[in-house]
Each structure stands twice: as structure tokens, then as C-alpha cells.
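Lab notes, practical 5.
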Amino acid sequence: MKKFLVVLLAISSLINCKSSSIEKPSDLSINYKKITLDNGLDVIFHVDKSDPVVAVELMVHVGSAREVEGRTGFAHLFEHLLFLESENLGKGGLDKMTARIGGSGANGSTSRDRTNYLQTVPKDALEKMIWAEADKLGWFINTVTDPVLAKEKQVVKNEKRQSYDNRPYGHNQYVIGKNLYPTNHPYNWEVIGSLEDLQNATLDDVKTFFKKWYVPNNATLVLSGDIDIEQATKWVHKYFDEIPKGNEIPALDKRPGNVPETKFLYYEDNFARVPQLTMVWPTVELYHPDSYALEVLAEYLTNGKSAPMNQVLVDDLKFTSNTTMFNYISELAGQSQVIVRAFNGVKLDDVKKGIEKAFAKFEAEGISDKDLNRIKAAQETNFYSSLSSVLGKGTRLASYNTYTGNPGFVTQDIKNTLAVTKEDVMNVYNKYIKNKNYIATSFVPKNSTDLALSNAVLADVVEEKIVIGAEENFDPKIEAKYEKTPSKINRSVEPPYGDLLELTVPEVYQDSLQNGLKILGIENDEVPLVRFNLTIDGGQLLESMDKLGLANLTANLLNKGTKNKTVAQLEEEIQDLGANISVRSDTENITISGTTLTKNYDKTIALVKEMLLQPRFDEAEFELLKKATIANLRQQEANPNAVAANIYNELIYGKDNIRSKNTLGTTASVQAITIEDVKEFYNKNMSPSVAKMLVVGDISKEKVLNSLADLNDDWTSKEVLIPVYETPKMPTKPMVYFYDIPNAKQSVLQFGAPALAATDADFYPATVMNYILGGGGFASRLTQELREGKGYTYGIRSNFSGTKAAGPFTISSGVRSNVTLESAQLIKKILEEYPTTFSDADLETTKSFLIKSNARAFETAGAKLNMLSNISDFGWKPDYVKDREKVVKNMTKERIAALANQYVNPNKMIWLIVGDAATQLERMKELGFGEPILLNKTSEKIKN
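Output from the prediction step:
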């Protein structure tokens, strides 16, 4: 039986109709119950007993649009602050509790219009989570003190540097917002705010903001999953009822952007290596009747081989490998954006002319019934995909309630989508795009202003200056002193667990074909979807050093048509089914992945087999793929995170090991590869003898086997010998390496050493050891010390990444440039002390998390596919998770210390820093590991 109520009966008949008239669709709904407390809090319950987990989401109707100019970034700042402390959980209490109860990790996000706090937990921890969420609203703000605020400002600043300042095209949306919306419009500034505003924020500013917006009558609480609504309702009343209602909060008026005249702006981007043109038009807000047709318009113009933008700019003019158009639709206003990242040296004036030519093509031809229905077909699949987890369902219910007051607005939302006509699509184009004023931004590489649009003016972008010692000092160890907020109940004691959970492992079936293809699957009927991976071992490992990137090009070319279908025809057939099929390559595999409605599974698999067995090998598409790959490689050259990943692999594996190479290849190797090389690679290496088919979803084993039976005859087995490379040795002494990216606002750190394969006996025990070190998110020492304690970084993590072959232990982070040395020194100290300071409490937290989190280990289709992959790749038993539980239960402090000494020794590691050598290279000598080695010639300083 289906585990939750979703009724959708008419979409398939609608999308197959020949006429442009729209049939009335049947109602579609998600079951829920809504109550409103006396203080105004909306509470929504959704029952889904397919897994013993509950998603808890608190959505507050406040985003950057509720801020005022000069005090921006407050909504996002609170997203951070509310995880730190509350009166009854204590300092770091939510993160500590999350670890103990096996939660997915307390998380949140901020948009222009709302902030949400969300987590999935085992169902026995539901009362604990309701207690904790109530503490956020009623017993939090007194814990925010000046030192707390000072530290979290640094964390948010680091997020801005990492997400905006230190990446290619990171300032594009900032420039658009400043010019699309007037200065007094709440969308004029970015959600993250300005560094200056954040720095100037006072404690009184912050508390005033909280008391205005963080009130029950401005919030929605959703409990979604394996719940008893009657009991959950009692807990909600117990913990939330006494929180006082806030002042009435009037709705903000809808207010579109304003562009009195077309404006061209340009910016020389320190991290860009190819030019990018963005054209933006003001449109309409969320759920406006025209918003649905605008979504269809954007999809039609840029998605797929037959899309007008791609026909003109990709195929005809060959200016780029793809185009993008999307609608950034928010509660108060919306905007339609076309983005084209051109090939190196292409002038954006020519790109603009190409976009205009594509628009003219659309004006002349319009959209066909077939294309309209194809786009609508994807709505059904996308809807069900969004419901594949209790968290996804909870977020959908919370969003509808926040913006419309009706959690069940999904019914009307889908009706509006399906009601779009060809005439609607042309009407919104004429109304919002054609001959209308717009904003155009040209982001070009340094010293390449000749590529920008003619007559563009320099955009006003504030670049942060990195100065050693410029940041505000604070003492994170100071305990907040405050008067506790009274309560009618005793909130100081954490509620107990519910009934003890039994670990249930999904039932796995295994079979094989006569040609050697292994088949593994899990039947699951929560939603009428099937997800699958057809994985063929080899990938990059089968390349030669003079043909680097060959596996990647082969995989990508398999996406480009079949013997009897052009690229456009193949894409259209896939889209007509509402399916997704894609082929990708990585170090060890080539994988064909897909998602389809159960009713369309057979037709989808037929297309997969055609792509696999009858590739088109189109020479024009091949040349375009090569050009796109080279453009991608060029962009990686100035992306600090990409540079760090590529250099780190070379240092770990050594230049003679293929695993050290970029899976895209090099510019020279890609240029040298011919289509005959691709054909030879395909013919030699694509064999069922090294392949497996993994299937998860609403389909029986019998149907899966029947759908694949003809591969016994059609796909001939052959011997494929996959090279085995020598396992890299751990360094005998520490080495510090530095790669220079001038003016970098952050330093990217990659510290580590060769370690273990996933099949090694120590691999999972080492993973257990790493939980408190850096694998446990906010429960980890690295995060607690570098982010929560010092404010050096937005995020830091450590992990063991072995597969069938040994992989490295790695610590990775992006830190503020002016604390590069201090961050490395603190990491070194943590590693040195870890074996001797791992405590009984640490062991208890580790065991509790790793055992209790198994309740949500197999909730989603993706998690189930990962489980099947582990079983097929490593030869593990279907219930391997139970063996892992035994490892956890038997773990001791002594074993943790031994594993740490063996695998995370700071004196036997590679220490790589990618950042600004002019200010940070010399300082790295103080780490105590000798003279740092500069890996690239220091570039000439580029002025900001």
C-alpha cells in the first residue's frame, strides 16, 4: 500500500493529449492536519510511517526582505545564532543533543522571505526536538551576548567570502540586485548582507530584530513522519503554549523591480577565466498567475538540444556549450535571468546578438503542443521526487503555509502549472521580455574588458581588504550571564526517549544475467518512482596517460543521441516520459543514472539500452564536448577549491598514478583525443562482465529482470582488465605546500595523507574514530574549535575516502586569509592532542550517534542506492550495517587512540594551502614543518 495520500490521476492523460485545450486535473494532495495555537503558532502534522523517523521544521516568516538598508544580513545572522545556545539546552546544546539522538544534523537556510530550521531524527527523539524548537522561540535571546555576537559575525563573514567573494562570478547577483531594485526595495541587497552592516550590528539591534520577528504568530512548525498526531499535539501544547504572542505583523506589499532604462554593467572578476553575460528582466512574484507560464518559457528557451537558445548559441554560433534561463521568483517580486558563459575570447556583444536571434526565433515559431506537454510531464516526476523524504514533504507543507496560509495549496499550485497554454507562454514573453528594459552584466577575466558589452559601465563592487590582525577579538570561553526566562514547567531537564527502536534493514534481492551483469534491487512503494544506476567499472582507471579525459568524453558522448535518434530526438523522448537519464564518468566507473515514473519504467529502460548499445558518436557533438571540457578546465584554473582538489590529488597519489589526474584531463590531452579514440575505448571497455544494475523503487524484482533479459543476447561480455595502481605510501615527515592565487579572500586548506581502502579491516573503525575529530559536523572538535571557538571558518571537516583502493584521510576547509597560519596551527594542535584527550563522554556521543542514526540510514532512494552500491562494490552482506553496529558497540578509548596515532598523525601528513602567497606564504614557516614549497610561479599582483 502507499504510505501517504497523493492523488494524481489526470496528468498523464493531459500530457498525452494532442489538443492544446486543458482537461481539468484531479486533485492532488498531501495528507496533513493543521492546528493554530492561541499564541498564533501554526502547527502542521503529516503522517508517513515508511521509516521510523520524523522531520522537524520550524519556518519563520522573516528573510532579508524584512531588514532595512544599513542593517542587512540580520535574518541570515539569526539562522546561525539560533543553533548556538538556548537557556535550557545550554551552550552548544542543540548540536550535542543532535549527536546523541542520531539526528541528521541541525541545519537551516535563509531566503529573501523566510528562515527555516530543520532536521530529521529517529522517532524516539520527537519530544526532545519539540522541546528544543520551543527553546528557540521562547528561551533563546537572553543567551546572545557581545562575545557570542562578535564570534558569529566572523563565521558569517567567512561564509560570504567562501560563497561569494572567493569564487568566479560570485558578485554577479549582488550587481543585479543593486540595479534591478531601488535602494529602498528589500531585494536591493543580498540575503547574506554586507560585511560592513554585519560589523556595525549592535547587541540591541540584534535583540530588537528577534523580538519583532521571532514570535509564534510569525512561524510554522511542521512535524512530518512516523508520528502519533494525538501525542505530538500534547507535546506541542506543553512546550509552546506559554510563549507569548507577538505584535501583529502586516504583510508586505508586492513590489516588482524597476528598470527605467536598459543598463549595461561590467566587472573584471579575479577568479573568472571566461566571460559571462547575464540579462535580467523584472517579472512577477511567487504564485502570480503569470509565474507559471514564465517557468515554462525559461524551460523551453534553454533546456535541451532543440531549445532556441541552444540551437543558436551552441549549435549555430558555437559561442558556448550550454545556456541557462531561470526565474528567481520570491514573495514580493520576481526576475527572469538568461546566463551564457561563453568560450574563451568570445565577445559578449556577439553573445547578446545571439540571444536576440534566439528570441526572434521563438517569436516566429512559438512553442508547440508537444513541447508544452513535454515540459508539463516533468512536473509529475519532480513532484514525486520532492516527496521522497519526510523532510521534503515537511518543507513543502511549511512553505505553502508560510506564503499562502494553506498547507494544501499544492492542489492549486499543480492545477495552475498544468493550466498553462501556448498562448500564455507567448503572452508572458511579450509582457515581460520583448522590447522591455533590462539589466545586463558582463563578468570578464582581469584585463579583458574588451570582451564586455559595448558601453557597459563599471559595476560598483566592494572588495574586502584582508589585513592581518584586523578582526575583532573575542573570548569564546566566556559563559553568557543572563536572567533566565520564567516558565510554568521545568524546562531544564531534557525529555526522555520514546520507545526503543529496532533496526530494520531493507530487503535486498540479488541476481545476474548470463552475460555477467549483476542485478541488485530494493522494492519500495512510497512514491510511484523508480531510480536506477547502471554502473560499469573502469572509468578513468582505463585511460592512458596520453589520453587523459577519454572516459569523461566517452560518457558524455553517450548522452548525445543514438544510432537512430538525434540528440534532440533522444532528449524529447526522455522528456516526454517525464524521466531523467544521464551518463557520467568518474575515477572508477561510468554510470548511467535515471529516474522515471513506475508506469514509464519499461520505455525508459528501452532508451537506456539504446543509448548504451547504439551510441551515435556524432562528430559535431564530440567537437563541442571537447571545447566545453577545455572551457571547464580553464575555469578551474582560478577556482581555489578546484585548484586545491586537483593539486592535493597529485600530492597524495604521485604523478605516475592515474588517480592523481583530473578526470576531465588536461587541455593538451583533450585537444589530442579523437573520436576514434572514443570508439576504441567504448568497444574495449563497456562490458556486462564489469557492470551492475542497481534498482530502487516501486517495481518488483520480476519486472526488473524481465526488462533486462534481452541484454543477454544484445550486450556481449568481454574481458576487461582494470589496472591496479600501487597504494601510495604515507609521508615519513610533514611537508607544507603553497599554491598562489593572488588576492584570494580565503585560503583553501587540504591537509592529509594516504590511508585506507573501504575494504580494509580498519576502515570503518577509523571512520568511527574520526566522528569526534571532524566527521561529526558540529559535534566535531575541528568545527567547535575553528568555527565556534575562533570564527576562522564557515565550515571544516575530515574524512576517510577510500573505495576499492586506498584513499586519503583529509581535513578540508576554507579559512579567512589573515588567519591561515593560525588555522593550521590550531589543526595541528587538535591532531596532536586527540589521541590522549578523547574522553568517555566523546565515546558515549560517538556510539549514540552512530547507532541511533541507523534509523534514518535507508530513508531515501538515494540512500538505498548507496547501500546497494556498497554491497556490490565491496562484497558486503545486505545487513552490513549490523556488523558496523557491533564495531561501534565494542569501540574503546584505547582503540580510538591507536587508530588516531596510526592514521591521523600530523607529523606524517601533507599540508596544502591554496591562497594569496603575497600575504600568507612566508608566515607558513611558523607552522614548524620547514620551508613551505611554492608550487606555482607567483603571479603578478592584480589590482582590485
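Observations recorded by the TA: Residues 2 and 526 are 5 Å apart (CA to CA). Residues 1-26, 940-944 have pLDDT under 50 and may be disordered.
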